Every structure is written in structure tokens, then in C-alpha cells.
Amino acid sequence: MTRLLLAAVLAATLLTGCAGSSAAPAGFVSGDGSITVIEVADRKPAPLVEGETLDGKAWSSTGSAGRVLVYNVWGSWCAPCRAEAPALEATAMATADVADFVGLNTRDLDRSGPQAFVRGFGIGYPNLYDPDGSLLLGFAPALPAAAIPSTLVVDTEGRLAARILGGTTETTLTALVRDIAEGR
Questions:
Q1: How many Cβ atoms from other residues are within 10 Å of residue 152's Cβ?
Q2: Is residue 81 within 8 Å of residue 18, measured between CB atoms?
Q3: 8 A C-beta contact, residue 144 and residue 15
Q4: What pLDDT score was predicted for residue 137?
Q5: How far apart are CA 113 and CA 38, in angstroms?
Q6: Is the pTM of this model over 0.70?
Q7: C-beta atoms surrounding 121 within 10 Å
Q8: How does DSSP classify residue 159?
Q9: By C-alpha distance, which of 138, 178, 154 is closest to 40?
Q10: Rounded to an integer, what distance in angstroms lies between the CA atom of residue 95 and that of residue 74?
């Protein structure tokens, strides 16, 4: 019952997500770009995330132990997701020494749109196919992705460290990842 309630709350929360595209699911609005950074002493363990990539390969967050892990929640129908895609790829490359990136594709009914998105933007990091948002449930209630796009950052100790609601920039995300990698 609790898991079902969390799924309903998450679904309702994501419905306040992304706008700007005629293909966007009804009711979606973009986040405001707000950044939440959790004080080191107050951080809680991030959920284990396991899923299948857009190209059908298994992926698990256990492979990123000891590194910063950046999750980006996105949809191929989302205009702000398209706008921030180059910044995410650039940041992933600029912080490859300390961080791993993974996309959480949500609300796409089949893989063709997200696969085209990844190819079109030259995204090199893995992207998990999560059409119903079930992978996001593990982040609630501590630090839910409350908009699409959202970016969640896990510190090197495997704890939820930060969240960006809405689109981000290379400068902002690179600084955030570097700060978290340095233990801040």
C-alpha cells in the first residue's frame, strides 16, 4: 500500500514537470532551476538504482561506488530537456575523473524517441528506460525529482547530496559536481 501511495504521489509530482512542447504529456510544467544542496551531516543513503538502458543493457548504480553519481531525469518530448542536453554531456566529459552520469528517461511510451534524442545530442553516458517513473520512487521522499527535467547528485559516500529542479547549465552543474566530489 505504501509503495502504491508513493507511486501515486510521484506520478502527481511529475505531472508538474515539463512544458514547452506540443508532444508533452498534458499538465507538465518546467522546474524553476532551483538547487537544493543537503548539508553533509544531513545526507541520507541514495537508493540502489538498477534498470535497463535504452539499448537493452543492464545497469546498476553499484558500478559507481566511490564516485559522484549524477542522475538526470528527462523525456524526449521535453523542450527544457533538449535545451540542457549539451550542457549535461559537456559536464559529464569535464567531470569524468570524479563523476558518472546516467539519464533516467521517463514518460516516453517507446524507446525510439529517446534513442533518437541520445543519438542526436551525442549523449555518451548510459540512459535507463523508465517509462512509468518506477526508478524514481526510491528517491522519494528524501529528495524527489519534482520536475522534468531534474538532476539528482549522489556524493562519493552514496548519499543524496543535491537536486536541481528544471534545466541546468554546464557552469552550474560542473561547479556542483566538483564541490560534492571534494566533500562539500
A1: 23
A2: yes
A3: no
A4: 84
A5: 34
A6: yes
A7: 15
A8: B
A9: 154
A10: 20
